[in-house]
Amino acid sequence: MELPLSDPTRIKRVLEAALLASAEPLPLADLRRMFDEDVGADVIRRMLEELRSEWADRGAELVNVASGWRFQVRPDYQRFLDRLNPQRPPKYSRAVLETLAIIAYRQPVTRGDIEEIRGVTVSSGILKALEARGWIDEVGHREVPGRPVLYSTTRTFLDDLSLRSLDELPPLEDLGSLVETEQVAVQEQQFGAPAEGAAGSVLNGEEKPAETQTDPA
């Protein structure tokens, strides 16, 4: 006999089905909308924690990221899945990783801020590539002459690194390896095959030396 939706086990199974079927993280508010009864947020959280424990010894895990809850393949098993659809993960140049790190740890920042810290002119292609990945976005303008654009990281950036907030960012020296590791797992779902042509040249390209830098303001 089917359990009523007020039964905790039934609630848990509905949550499990929804999370397995969703390609994107689901926030708590969306999960609550599935139930006719007024299922409290504390009940949903408790069921999610129970689900997390139930999946603790499986190939996939339930995680809480910036945009909500999702199931994802455990990193230890990703290499086996890669054999089903082998793709070369994108390689990030030092320029890309340094630019991303500055934005992540010093946000909000302008292009001029990044150039001042790195000592080189930042290619507009690098910023566009990071925007295309959904990892950074324009969040406003600094109120100085010229009103330069301010950049910050996005929820997608946190989701792809399996983080809930910026407070969980790893030590700065570990960011590069974390980005490349996590990107292998999400590239097919989020971005498709590695970019070729112009985008590829941006990710692997070089930048101009500092003496060609423009006024950061």
Summarize the entry for a quick read.
With 217 residues, the protein is mostly helical.
Mean pLDDT: 81
Question: Total strand count, please?
Answer: 5
Which structural class best describes the helix and strand composition? mainly alpha
Biggest beta sheet summary: 3 strands, antiparallel
Helical content, roughly?
40-55%
Shape: globular
Number of helices: 10
Would you write up a description of this structure?
The protein is mostly helical and about 220 residues long. About 45% of the residues lie in helices and about 10% in strands. It has a 3-stranded antiparallel beta sheet with strand order 3-5-4. Strand 1 (about 60-65) and strand 2 form a beta hairpin. Helix 1 crosses helix 3 (about 40-55). The longest helix is centred in the last third of the chain and has 16 residues, at about 175-190. Mean pLDDT is about 80; it is low at about 185-205 and about 210-215.
Structural descriptors:
217 residues, globular, 5 strands, two-stranded antiparallel sheet, mainly alpha, three-stranded antiparallel β-sheet
Write the topology of this structure.
Elements: H1 8-21, H2 28-32, H3 41-54, E1 60-65, E2 68-73, H4 75-82, H5 94-106, E3 109-110, H6 111-118, H7 124-132, E4 136-141, E5 149-153, H8 155-160, H9 175-190, H10 197-204
Antiparallel strand pairs: 1-2, 3-5, 4-5
Helix pairs in contact: 1-3
